């Protein structure tokens, strides 16, 4: 039963990347499996577990960081050959640690993803950022240039589908199915896919079923046939958990059906089983303190007890075992821990005391040596795993910082108007929060210091931006190590920061058009679009022209961007989007001393359309704010009167839902102000294209907004 699964820690290696830990096949019946893991120090470690202790099998010397680790072997034989991707090289080792392959590829970039399959020889499917290569016995067979970054790759089992069918997981929310060096077709998925796995470990009965996980936490199954994709099921991320980094299939519940094992970047491990024949159901979850880089089911610690092994970002190898930790007497009461477990705990305590003494001694030695005039302090190196992504659900950015050691503090410096929201405030407190007027370009608008509690290795912040306000956010990360040192990480807040790539748009909406013409290259206008909009690949697309579609995650408005050498055309149902693009693109062209011929076609109906999209959100937020402001008074009335039966039903419901209302209001600070700001910008932008300045009428507009009358608001826009 999942409820009986217990956690245990085996050992720690260096910082690990995604999909760099595997279990070697068992060598005999009921034998435990060996663990092999590669870290970012370039070290491959292989070990087994005997009597609860890690027993090393082999360990390689340090080198370039290991980006992927896969197992391979001839068809119908144990998959026990170890392949690692490091830099642009692939190395192969036997299960005893003897190197048998050193293949330097012709890739100009480092390998990001790898898949190994033995057909007639050793087939390697390798991906750099945008490039896919297929090698057979170290000879180049096929090549493909992707339109966006490649996050993962796999190949359908050739013994089942009778042909080589690689599948690429690309950042633009597309799975690209290849045939040789050509694109067979693309499969649209609901989020940027980060990981692929064969369903049931073998692609299902047909061999064509692929499970994918996305960076926004969604999970799905698609059957990839020769002619078209067939979606099977899709699971959303209702609990707002982290992105999916690793997937495996294993029968941990012992019911004869393999469960789906999922590892997320917020440290949540999930087990899904198939109670019905169709969609998987979440059966068990467990929260670790770090992102889970790799996951696999097997038998590691003790014969007869299956486990889920997970490797985390900082290199901890943690097992969730079905072995019972406690024994019970007939009454169901827990007895004392077994002798073996007591011995293990005693051994760990002794080892911990020894390490604490050693740390104190080394610290004293360092303090004494630092007082010498000839002493030189070396800056300690540390890894930071960061992620800055736009959340579609609440139109906010999540900044996640994960460090291999405990975080002391993080200083956030922002050059534009932003709203910071606290996530898990119990893990830190804000030392100070300083906001002052931005008088100079690129000067500080906001400074905030987050001082973390002891042993906090992961910090998450929510950032809410305003479109049209663009600049940089810098995070200064200082861990709890000596001597004190920090790393600076920089993130761009783009002019149209709330827009997200989408596969298609509704062409029946009233659209405004902005057209640019001038002496600029395809690469130049592409760099301007990259500067303006998120989720656009930095690499200039192949071909003579390109079209991207976007959706505003806050309002639901859309943008179509089509451009080529010498010409760009941008269409949106929101005048403010067109206005921001016009201003920013003009500025970027002026920097490069390029003359632009700018023309625009404004559709008056689009203003009414945009207001109708905004108004329901405005009405809801105003009602929420009114309810929240009444809560304190109603609670005070409840205390004085003893009961609230005399109140109207609508006021009683506010008291009953008070906690939920406050929680929702807390999650969306300044939400109403953002809506007011967007409507004000829409009003100003509408008349800016007519050459009229209406800023003096803004106070009157705000009065109408307080009344929350949609017809009156539309009438004001048309009459002004």
Automatic annotation (TrEMBL):
It comes from the Eukaryota. Residues 380-491 form the BBS7 GAE domain. One of its GO terms (biological process) is non-motile cilium assembly. GO terms for cellular component: axoneme; BBSome; ciliary basal body; membrane; neuron projection. Residues 499-601 form the BBS7 platform domain. Residues 338-365 form a coiled coil. Keywords: Coiled coil. Residues 21-322 form the BBS7 beta-propeller domain. The keyword Coiled coil applies. Residues 604-717 form the BBS7 helical hairpin domain. PANTHER family: BARDET-BIEDL SYNDROME 7 PROTEIN. This is BBS7 protein. It comes from Oceanites oceanicus. The lineage of its organism: Eukaryota, Metazoa, Chordata, Craniata, Vertebrata. The gene is Bbs7.
